[in-house]
Amino acid sequence: EDRVDVVSRGLLGLTVACARCHDHKYDPIPTSDYYALAGVFASTEMFNRPLNDTVAVEGKGQAKKPQDADHLVRDGQPRDLHVMIRGDVSKEGDLAPRQFLTALSEKPIMFQNGSGRSDLAKAITAKSNPLTARVLVNRVWQQLMGRPLVGTPSNFGKLGEEPTHPDLLDDLAVRFMNHDWSWKWLQREIVLSATYAQSSHADKQKLAMD
User: Please, which of 31, 62, 163, 197 could form a disulfide with 48 given CB 3.0 to 4.6 Å?
Assistant: First the structure.
Protein backbone atom coordinates (compact mmCIF):
# COMPACT_ATOMS: atom_id res chain seq x y z
CA GLU A 1 0.00 0.00 0.00
CA ASP A 2 2.81 2.39 0.89
CA ARG A 3 4.62 1.87 -2.41
CA VAL A 4 1.48 2.36 -4.47
CA ASP A 5 0.74 5.53 -2.51
CA VAL A 6 4.25 6.96 -2.79
CA VAL A 7 4.56 6.28 -6.52
CA SER A 8 1.06 7.45 -7.45
CA ARG A 9 1.02 10.63 -5.35
CA GLY A 10 4.70 11.40 -5.81
CA LEU A 11 4.89 11.02 -9.59
CA LEU A 12 1.32 11.13 -10.87
CA GLY A 13 -0.37 13.42 -8.37
CA LEU A 14 -3.18 10.90 -7.86
CA THR A 15 -4.40 9.33 -4.61
CA VAL A 16 -4.61 5.78 -5.98
CA ALA A 17 -4.40 4.27 -2.48
CA CYS A 18 -7.92 5.59 -1.85
CA ALA A 19 -9.13 2.83 -4.20
CA ARG A 20 -7.84 -0.06 -2.09
CA CYS A 21 -11.21 -0.87 -0.53
CA HIS A 22 -13.61 0.71 -3.03
CA ASP A 23 -13.61 2.63 -6.28
CA HIS A 24 -12.19 6.11 -5.80
CA LYS A 25 -14.94 8.45 -4.65
CA TYR A 26 -13.85 11.40 -6.80
CA ASP A 27 -11.31 10.36 -9.46
CA PRO A 28 -11.82 7.71 -12.19
CA ILE A 29 -9.72 5.08 -10.44
CA PRO A 30 -11.45 1.71 -9.94
CA THR A 31 -10.37 -0.72 -7.26
CA SER A 32 -8.99 -3.02 -9.96
CA ASP A 33 -6.48 -0.30 -10.90
CA TYR A 34 -5.14 -0.23 -7.34
CA TYR A 35 -4.54 -3.99 -7.33
CA ALA A 36 -3.09 -3.86 -10.85
CA LEU A 37 -0.36 -1.55 -9.53
CA ALA A 38 -0.04 -3.40 -6.23
CA GLY A 39 0.69 -6.56 -8.22
CA VAL A 40 3.83 -4.93 -9.60
CA PHE A 41 5.23 -4.37 -6.12
CA ALA A 42 4.00 -7.75 -4.90
CA SER A 43 6.17 -9.23 -7.67
CA THR A 44 9.34 -7.77 -6.13
CA GLU A 45 11.44 -8.69 -3.11
CA MET A 46 13.91 -7.00 -0.81
CA PHE A 47 17.47 -8.31 -1.06
CA ASN A 48 20.48 -7.54 1.10
CA ARG A 49 23.39 -7.78 -1.34
CA PRO A 50 26.72 -8.39 0.43
CA LEU A 51 29.14 -5.48 0.19
CA ASN A 52 32.04 -7.82 -0.61
CA ASP A 53 33.14 -11.46 -0.63
CA THR A 54 34.13 -11.44 3.05
CA VAL A 55 30.58 -10.76 4.30
CA ALA A 56 28.78 -13.65 5.98
CA VAL A 57 25.69 -14.72 4.03
CA GLU A 58 22.57 -16.77 4.63
CA GLY A 59 19.63 -18.01 2.55
CA LYS A 60 19.61 -16.93 -1.11
CA GLY A 61 23.03 -15.37 -0.63
CA GLN A 62 21.84 -12.43 1.44
CA ALA A 63 24.09 -10.76 3.98
CA LYS A 64 23.33 -11.80 7.55
CA LYS A 65 23.82 -8.29 8.93
CA PRO A 66 22.03 -5.33 7.30
CA GLN A 67 25.04 -3.07 7.89
CA ASP A 68 27.12 -5.35 5.64
CA ALA A 69 24.81 -5.03 2.66
CA ASP A 70 23.37 -2.86 -0.08
CA HIS A 71 19.60 -2.95 0.33
CA LEU A 72 17.94 -3.62 -3.03
CA VAL A 73 14.49 -4.13 -4.44
CA ARG A 74 14.63 -6.71 -7.20
CA ASP A 75 12.22 -8.77 -9.27
CA GLY A 76 10.72 -11.75 -7.50
CA GLN A 77 8.10 -14.17 -8.75
CA PRO A 78 5.73 -12.27 -11.08
CA ARG A 79 2.12 -12.54 -9.96
CA ASP A 80 -1.20 -10.79 -10.35
CA LEU A 81 -3.39 -10.03 -7.37
CA HIS A 82 -7.07 -10.58 -6.84
CA VAL A 83 -9.13 -7.59 -5.82
CA MET A 84 -9.65 -7.82 -2.07
CA ILE A 85 -13.31 -6.96 -1.57
CA ARG A 86 -13.53 -3.96 0.75
CA GLY A 87 -9.83 -4.51 1.48
CA ASP A 88 -10.48 -7.83 3.22
CA VAL A 89 -7.72 -10.35 2.37
CA SER A 90 -10.09 -13.23 3.05
CA LYS A 91 -12.58 -12.07 0.38
CA GLU A 92 -11.07 -12.42 -3.08
CA GLY A 93 -12.71 -10.79 -6.05
CA ASP A 94 -11.72 -10.73 -9.71
CA LEU A 95 -8.10 -11.08 -10.78
CA ALA A 96 -6.50 -7.70 -11.58
CA PRO A 97 -3.74 -8.20 -14.18
CA ARG A 98 -0.76 -5.87 -13.77
CA GLN A 99 -1.31 -2.80 -15.91
CA PHE A 100 -1.20 1.01 -15.92
CA LEU A 101 -4.03 3.21 -14.70
CA THR A 102 -6.97 2.95 -17.09
CA ALA A 103 -7.77 6.68 -16.79
CA LEU A 104 -4.32 7.49 -18.23
CA SER A 105 -4.41 4.90 -21.02
CA GLU A 106 -6.15 5.12 -24.38
CA LYS A 107 -5.95 1.33 -24.46
CA PRO A 108 -4.79 -1.12 -21.74
CA ILE A 109 -1.04 -0.98 -21.06
CA MET A 110 -0.29 -4.44 -19.69
CA PHE A 111 2.82 -5.19 -17.63
CA GLN A 112 4.30 -8.53 -18.67
CA ASN A 113 8.05 -7.94 -18.39
CA GLY A 114 9.09 -9.60 -15.14
CA SER A 115 7.53 -7.82 -12.18
CA GLY A 116 6.37 -5.03 -14.45
CA ARG A 117 8.55 -2.36 -12.82
CA SER A 118 10.25 -1.34 -16.07
CA ASP A 119 6.91 -1.29 -17.89
CA LEU A 120 5.45 0.87 -15.13
CA ALA A 121 8.39 3.28 -15.34
CA LYS A 122 7.94 3.62 -19.11
CA ALA A 123 4.22 4.28 -18.71
CA ILE A 124 4.81 6.89 -16.01
CA THR A 125 7.34 8.76 -18.17
CA ALA A 126 5.57 8.37 -21.51
CA LYS A 127 5.00 11.68 -23.33
CA SER A 128 1.38 10.66 -23.75
CA ASN A 129 0.95 10.69 -19.96
CA PRO A 130 -0.39 14.14 -19.09
CA LEU A 131 0.54 14.16 -15.41
CA THR A 132 4.11 13.17 -14.55
CA ALA A 133 5.93 16.11 -16.11
CA ARG A 134 3.44 18.57 -14.63
CA VAL A 135 3.73 17.03 -11.17
CA LEU A 136 7.54 17.15 -11.26
CA VAL A 137 7.68 20.71 -12.63
CA ASN A 138 5.28 21.78 -9.91
CA ARG A 139 7.47 20.24 -7.19
CA VAL A 140 10.64 21.91 -8.50
CA TRP A 141 8.81 25.23 -8.84
CA GLN A 142 7.68 24.93 -5.21
CA GLN A 143 11.21 24.23 -3.98
CA LEU A 144 12.68 27.18 -5.87
CA MET A 145 9.86 29.69 -5.52
CA GLY A 146 8.50 28.73 -2.10
CA ARG A 147 4.96 28.24 -3.43
CA PRO A 148 3.74 25.69 -6.01
CA LEU A 149 1.71 26.46 -9.13
CA VAL A 150 -0.71 23.75 -7.99
CA GLY A 151 -1.38 24.17 -4.28
CA THR A 152 -1.88 20.42 -3.74
CA PRO A 153 1.38 18.94 -5.14
CA SER A 154 0.37 15.35 -4.39
CA ASN A 155 -3.20 15.64 -5.62
CA PHE A 156 -3.95 16.73 -9.17
CA GLY A 157 -7.33 15.00 -8.98
CA LYS A 158 -10.83 16.42 -8.63
CA LEU A 159 -10.28 17.52 -5.03
CA GLY A 160 -6.92 19.11 -5.85
CA GLU A 161 -6.48 22.82 -6.46
CA GLU A 162 -6.48 24.32 -9.93
CA PRO A 163 -3.08 25.66 -11.12
CA THR A 164 -2.65 29.39 -10.64
CA HIS A 165 -0.89 29.63 -14.03
CA PRO A 166 -1.94 26.60 -16.14
CA ASP A 167 -0.30 27.83 -19.36
CA LEU A 168 3.03 28.26 -17.57
CA LEU A 169 2.78 24.79 -16.03
CA ASP A 170 1.93 23.21 -19.40
CA ASP A 171 4.74 25.06 -21.20
CA LEU A 172 7.39 24.06 -18.67
CA ALA A 173 6.14 20.45 -18.60
CA VAL A 174 6.32 20.04 -22.38
CA ARG A 175 9.75 21.65 -22.65
CA PHE A 176 10.97 19.61 -19.66
CA MET A 177 10.11 16.42 -21.55
CA ASN A 178 11.59 17.77 -24.79
CA HIS A 179 14.87 18.36 -22.93
CA ASP A 180 15.01 14.66 -21.96
CA TRP A 181 13.60 15.23 -18.47
CA SER A 182 16.73 17.16 -17.49
CA TRP A 183 16.52 18.44 -13.90
CA LYS A 184 19.47 20.71 -14.60
CA TRP A 185 17.69 22.30 -17.56
CA LEU A 186 14.47 22.78 -15.57
CA GLN A 187 16.18 24.41 -12.61
CA ARG A 188 18.25 26.66 -14.86
CA GLU A 189 15.16 27.71 -16.82
CA ILE A 190 13.37 28.74 -13.63
CA VAL A 191 16.20 30.49 -11.79
CA LEU A 192 17.23 32.50 -14.87
CA SER A 193 13.67 33.73 -15.40
CA ALA A 194 12.50 37.29 -14.74
CA THR A 195 9.99 35.88 -12.24
CA TYR A 196 12.71 34.30 -10.11
CA ALA A 197 14.73 37.53 -10.22
CA GLN A 198 11.93 39.59 -8.69
CA SER A 199 12.23 40.54 -5.05
CA SER A 200 9.52 39.50 -2.63
CA HIS A 201 10.25 42.47 -0.36
CA ALA A 202 7.78 45.32 -0.76
CA ASP A 203 9.00 48.91 -0.77
CA LYS A 204 6.98 50.85 1.82
CA GLN A 205 6.56 53.93 -0.37
CA LYS A 206 5.42 51.92 -3.40
CA LEU A 207 3.12 49.86 -1.19
CA ALA A 208 1.57 53.07 0.14
CA MET A 209 1.06 54.33 -3.42
CA ASP A 210 -0.62 51.07 -4.38
Answer: 62
